[in-house]
Design a protein that fits this description.
Shape of chain B: globular
Radius of gyration of chain A: 16 Å
Oligomer: heterodimer
Low-confidence stretches of chain B: none
Low-confidence stretches of chain A: 163-167
Number of strands of chain A: 10
Helix content of chain B: 25-40%
Largest sheet of chain B: 7 strands, mixed
Distance between the termini of chain B: 53 Å
Number of helices of chain B: 26
Strand order of the largest sheet of chain A: 1-10
Largest sheet of chain A: 2 strands, antiparallel
Strand content of chain B: 15-25%
Shape of chain A: globular
Strand order of the largest sheet of chain B: 5-4-17-16-15-6-7
Chain lengths: 167, 706
């Protein structure tokens, strides 16, 4: 099976639980986590102004640009779709950070390596949801088999997602 | 525990806000490593909020108070000396005995913050001590709701999300990111299916407002008028439940007469909400079945507090949604000892009850046993009607969270003896004579949810010990015993057993079970009527009639508003509303936790783009907000989600990173600006007006912003 990871931002309420859950799960004591919530600019949606949030995270692209530019082949895509950084190979050149269209790749200044969402592989192995998805009070973070998520969310949203990732 | 890895997972229940979310606490070698939501728990289904998740940083924070301290310099100087628990408790007991014999028990007051399960312990201590003076936030937060509900329909009816309401009207509440009174945001989010109709009443464009079928963006503080206007539509278009009204309502004719004083056109002029929108919302709420109203504290923090609570309950009742599945219902708690029985209220002598500060004036507050805080500050500063000489404050930071902070600070600085129990050295704790280190919810045995009306209670267990921290429950009962009070259990656990005894379970057994839930039954009134003097829903309150208040709800104009004080508009042209919830903080708490503070580093104030342009303010600029009481600064957030006539500022700000004993309490604290003049209180409850006042704004000069 292939994993997909999607945030239905039409349901995100901006509670930031996912950010803290991520930092806790991955021992990030301070600084940005691997999923980040930003208030969207308040806009007008017909008569009624609209308030919402955008959520930045690695979507584990089908054709990841980070893999293409990494000079040391430190980033790989597993058979189940999860894009992983092998830290021991990372030289901290930041090429992947520059190329990621979603801003999902972050730089750990102390370890001097690139870091990003691992989809909580350890939790997935135990049959658990990723930490952010488990904590989300509006249940708007979906992680699982790409086909079952298609069913849950409907084609329209998935199409938007694929468009966003350039897949 | 797994012996090979030293890892262990313990089930418990969060209490970062009022509490109620089931959690899995992960430990390694006795240290908490992580908190996960418990997927099998019925109130949160595995979800958590940012605050609850960050508790690990709270528990092990380097600035946590670990030992009792006594003041070693002058008041507020920031000099402290570590003492033993024995010395701390003996010092307190000696002082309380001295005050009691010299001035009387009523000269000792007890303060608390939000309801956190030790309310009952504090009340018991007060009753056995003989003082009627307990204060907190309840006069304008939740207990005011309960009080208004008790006189109207016997108890507080809360949303029945489980049964799938077809229409939800969210009123002055941002449940999905806020702390729960009954429910967590998860319950509301899950109830919002694509088919569910959503009405949101809020002066700010919240995320919920943006998703609503109808958003009523009203002038802050005019909620009561809006609700009366909706009642007008429901009555005149005959959208009410005739059968229910006929059988179960007291005072229908008087009610009809009153709501006829609020036609939509007139309500539009008061509230700024177009009359047609008021009609649409009233029709949608009344004609969609079942429907529930989710309301919050915003409507309670003005002089309309009690009447606003009453008119919302009236809307629930006349539409037939009271105690009906998917409406607003009376959940049945598990069998437990009642609060009155646990707190030994009968042991407080009548002559002491009669001395409750403000009790003769605010009669609903007297019934809820809550003094409005200003009465305490006055008694400290003026010694009238009698002096308050000693004050014990648990889990509260009134210098930041109560109206007219300048006066609060002065009173706490002047009081003869102040004890503060808290997690950190707050601006309030800095003024104390003795500071006691409180345990977090991971460090105590207790029974959670005892006061709430969702039908659950949550036994919590102690998982770790930090320094010499003790639970508030333990501190209060230990003080009671040392004061010679009779009625306390030998241990805190014995007191918890006493609460749970009617359930047939002791605390340990309940803890194993995880939670207790009462057996729900709908429409209980069909058999038993309502617990009011007439046995009906009292739209016309016989209790208020007896107490000499208006028996019907009405709208009172906000004291400091352009409508009421046109002469002020030149100097203070904007309406300031305060207190909207910040998702990552609970009131004045959590500013020291990196995971949360980096999400929301600075206090922010919402202004409309046209206002920003007029004053030359850019996004993120520091601006001054000024009222007749003073000025504070916050950073501008420019948004079309706020009316150009309104400014929305945050509350709860102090700066733990400022190490001097003031911790910047005057810099951004919005309660420097709020007023606490008793002439502007809710007549029955003494609710303070925190939510609406007049202000001006201007950019902080380049020099000042450095």
């Amino acid at each position: 099976m292939e994993y997909a990871f999607i945030v239905d931002i039409t349901k995100c309420v901006g509670c930031y639980a996912c950010e803290v859950a991520c930092k806790q799960e991955h021992n990030i004591s301070s600084g940005p986590g691997w999923i980040r919530v930003f208030p969207a600019k308040t806009g007008s949606n017909g008569e009624q102004p609209h308030a919402g949030y955008t959520v930045t995270h690695c979507v584990h692209c089908s054709r990841p640009l980070c893999i293409a530019v990494c000079p040391t082949e430190a980033i790989t895509k597993r058979e189940d779709g999860i894009v992983m950084i092998h830290e021991e190979l990372c030289i901290g050149c930041k090429e992947c950070i520059a190329v990621c269209p979603l801003g999902a790749m972050l730089f750990d200044e102390i370890a001097a390596v690139a870091r990003k969402c691992t989809l909580c592989v350890d939790r997935l192995d135990k049959g658990l949801k990723p930490a952010c998805a488990a904590a989300c009070p509006s249940h708007c973070i979906y992680c699982g088999d790409v086909n079952s998520i298609t069913e849950q969310l409907g084609q329209q949203k998935l199409f938007t997602w694929y468009k966003a990732t350039g897949a | 525990m797994s012996k090979s890895t030293g890892e262990e997972i313990v089930r418990s229940n969060c209490r970062t806000c009022h509490g109620g979310c089931g959690v899995l606490v992960h430990l390694k070698d006795g240290r908490i490593t992580k908190i996960d939501g418990d997927p099998d728990f019925p109130t949160n289904r595995g979800s958590m909020c940012s605050k609850g998740l960050a508790t690990v940083q709270m528990v092990y924070h380097p600035d946590r108070l670990h030992y009792p301290l006594k003041r070693a310099g002058s008041k507020g100087e920031g000099k402290w000396q570590r003492i033993t628990w024995d010395e701390a408790l003996e010092t307190i007991v000696d002082k309380l005995k001295q005050v009691k014999s010299r001035y009387g028990s009523e000269s000792i007051a007890l303060g608390q913050g939000t309801g956190r399960d030790y309310d009952a312990f504090l009340s018991r201590f007060a009753n056995l001590l003989g003082t009627p003076n307990i204060f907190g936030a309840g006069h304008m937060c939740y207990l005011s709701r309960v009080g208004a509900a008790q006189i109207t329909c016997g108890n507080l009816p809360v949303c029945d999300y489980e049964s799938g309401p077809a229409c939800i009207m969210v009123w002055g509440n941002n449940q999905v990111i806020a702390n729960a009174d009954e429910y967590t945001g998860e319950n509301l989010s899950r109830a919002l299916s694509p088919q569910t109709k959503l009405i949101v009443v809020d002066p700010r464009l919240t995320c919920l407002a943006s998703r609503a079928d109808i958003w009523l963006q009203l002038r802050p503080g005019t909620d009561t008028a809006l609700a009366l206007g909706m009642a007008n539509v429901i009555v005149n278009e005959k959208l009410y439940d005739r059968d229910f009204v006929e059988k179960h309502i007291h005072g229908w004719d008087e009610f009809v007469k009153r709501v006829n004083e609020y036609p939509p056109d007139m309500v539009e002029a008061i509230t700024w909400v177009p009359a047609d929108k008021i009609r649409q919302a009233a029709r949608l709420y009344a004609q969609t079945k079942p429907a529930c109203i989710q309301w919050g504290v915003a409507i309670e923090q003005t002089l309309n507090c009690t009447d606003n609570n009453r008119i919302l309950i009236d809307l629930v009742a006349i539409t037939g949604n009271l105690d009906a599945p998917g409406g607003n219902v009376f959940f049945v708690p598990p069998p437990m000892r009642t609060i009155g029985k646990f707190t030994y209220y009968e042991k407080l002598p009548p002559e002491q009850k009669a001395k409750m500060l403000g009790g003769d004036t605010y009669k609903l507050a007297r019934r809820m046993r809550l003094v409005t805080p200003k009465m305490i500050w006055d008694a400290i500063l003026t010694e009238k009607p009698y002096p308050i000489k000693a004050l014990l404050i648990h889990g509260s930071n009134p210098v930041i969270t109560r109206a007219n902070a300048g006066e609060v600070y002065q009173a706490l600085k002047e009081i003869e003896f102040l004890v503060v129990t808290d997690f950190f050295m707050t601006p309030t704790a800095e003024l104390a004579d003795i500071v006691l280190p409180a345990a977090t919810w991971l460090e105590m045995d207790c029974v959670g949810g005892y006061l709430f009306r969702h039908g659950y209670v949550f036994p919590r267990k102690k998982i770790v010990q930090i320094g010499e921290c003790r639970s508030d429950h333990e501190i209060i009962s230990e003080l009671g015993k040392r004061m010679g009070q009779e009625g306390w259990g030998d241990t805190t656990e014995a007191d918890l057993d006493f609460i749970l005894e009617p359930s047939g379970m002791n605390w340990r057994q309940a803890r194993e079970k995880g939670y207790l839930k009462g057996e729900m039954e709908y429409r209980k009134y069909e058999k038993k009527g309502f617990s009011t003097p007439t046995g009906k829903v009292e739209l016309y309150s016989t209790v208020f009639e007896e107490w000499g208040y208006d028996p019907l709800p009405r709208y009172r104009e906000i004291p400091e508003s352009p409508a009421n004080k046109p002469e002020m508009t030149e100097k203070y042209p904007y309406i300031l509303t305060t207190g909207a919830r910040i998702p990552v903080f609970f009131h004045s708490e959590h500013r020291m936790l990196p995971w949360l503070r980096e999400i929301h580093p600075d206090p922010t104030v919402e202004i409309h783009p046209s206002v920003a342009e007029k004053h030359g303010i850019k996004e993120g600029d520091w601006i001054f907000i000024e009222s007749p009481r003073g000025r504070v600064r916050q950073r501008a957030r420019i948004t079309t989600g706020i009316d150009p006539r309104v400014i929305a500022a945050e509350h709860g700000w102090w700066f733990p990173e400022i190490k001097s004993p003031d911790h910047g309490w005057q810099d951004a604290n919005i309660n420097i600006l709020t007023d606490n003049d008793p002439k502007d209180y809710d007549v029955a409850m003494g609710a303070t007006n925190l939510r609406v006042l007049m202000c001006n704004i201007y950019p902080v000069g380049a020099k000042e912003s450095e």
